[in-house]
Amino acid sequence: MTTVSPRPVQPVVDDVAAPPPAMRLRELVFGAAVSAAVRAAARLGVADALDETPTTAEALAVKVTTEPQPLRRLLHALSCYGIFVETEDGTFAHTPMSRMLREDDPNSLRYISLWCTEPWTWDAWPRLDQAVRSGESVFQDLYGKGFFEYLHDDARESAHVFNRAMTTSSVQSAQDVADLLDLKGVRTVADIGGGQGHVLASLLEKHPTVKGTLLDLPGVVAKADPRLRDGGHLAGRVTIVAGDCRREMPVDVDLYVIKNILEWDDESTRSTLRNVVEAARPGARVVVIENLVDDTPSMKFTTAMDLLLLLNVGGAKHTQKSMTDRMTQAGLVVGEVRPVNAYLHAFESVVPG
User: Fold this and answer.
1) Is the pTM of this model over 0.85?
2) In what helix (H) or strand (E) does residue 319 lie, and over which residues does it extend?
3) Closest Cα partner for 68 from 77, 76, 59?
4) pLDDT, one tens digit for every residue, the chain (353 residues)
5) Closest CA to 307 of 95, 137, 104
6) Angle at the Cα of 83 from the Cα atoms of 81 and 87, rounded to 5 degrees
7) Are 192 and 262 in contact (CB under 8 A)?
């Protein structure tokens, strides 16, 4: 097939004048259609099937086993949002966003896209008014059990998608955290509620004299990053501890890193921070890393995640003030707040003497 330079039939939405309010509201009301279209493209593997040569919907349909006309309609809809581009000759080509739906892309958001559009989300979102009234999760009413219990018992595929999404997010941000944090004078570091330990592994690889501890629930640390487990090249410098940071903190280190776990509910946040302060020696550093709902560049994303947390676990994302307040109330002395990347902030603090 002859290579054709991708030229959009219409400019991408962001490049044209904003639509009038009535049209914009109509677009927003149909936001579910956009989410469903992204999910369909991810599940069908359209981005994986499309290489660097602009391709017809007919040829793509053969690769992904769909009917060509519905696939063309799906791609046309997504191209309105800059996900794929439709050329003047009717073929489709990649854009930076469509490439991130590929599973092999280093910045892949395929599993994040699937996670945010899982079947349970379509049941939960229409009950947002109920969650706003009560301030509580709607999961018990929907499924007769809590969110994580539901995933474990009744939605194994969704649980798998969740684990892949969290792993993807952690891997992609781990190097940003390692690049940001100054470990001068630090001999020991702990990744609290650190999942598989991607942040810890990145820190230890960058600082070869530092030793580390990974603390998380037993079923989580059992699947720790291979670099940290027996046989891994970092294993000799790592202690893996199975535990619940909300109940106890059996770790004494120079630096505690707490990333994206202080958002489930207020009591979990308070107990985790309180346990750190009680266990840590005076002068120990505590770095909390979170998404913020008052961070302008990523607010559309973080405020949406905030509402999803309300629906599924009754949790909440923080503002800079609310996070600082929680840390101060726990007894930490909060210092500088710095951006880690486009959607994360790091709160520096110390345990007082």
Assistant:
1) yes
2) none
3) 59
4) 334 444 444 434 444 578 899 999 999 999 999 999 999 999 999 999 999 999 999 999 999 999 999 999 999 999 999 999 999 999 999 999 999 999 999 999 999 999 999 999 999 999 999 999 999 999 999 999 999 899 999 999 999 998 899 888 888 999 999 999 999 999 999 999 999 999 999 999 999 999 999 999 998 999 999 999 999 999 999 999 999 999 999 999 999 999 999 988 888 899 999 999 999 999 999 999 999 999 888 999 999 999 999 999 999 999 999 999 999 999 999 999 999 998 999 999 999 98
5) 137
6) 95
7) no
- Helix then strand count (H, E) for the chain reads 17, 9
Of 183, 188, 241, 178, the residue nearest 215 (C-alpha): 241
For residue 286, report the phi and psi dihedrals to the nearest 5 degrees: -130, 120
Q: Which two tokens stand for residue 118?
A: 């899982």
Residue type, 2: T
Q: How far is CA 142 from CA 130, 134, 280, 292, 327, in A?
A: 12, 15, 41, 28, 34
Q: What are the phi and psi torsion angles at 87 (to 5°)?
A: -85, 175
With 0-12 CB in 10 A as exposed, 13-18 as middle and 19+ as buried, what is 54? Answer: buried
With CA atoms as reference, report the closest residue to 342 among 292, 273, 307.
Answer: 292
Q: Are 83 and 97 in contact (CB under 8 A)?
A: yes
Pick from 290, 258, 274: which is nearest to 326 by CA?
274
CA atoms within 13 A on the CB side of 252: 4
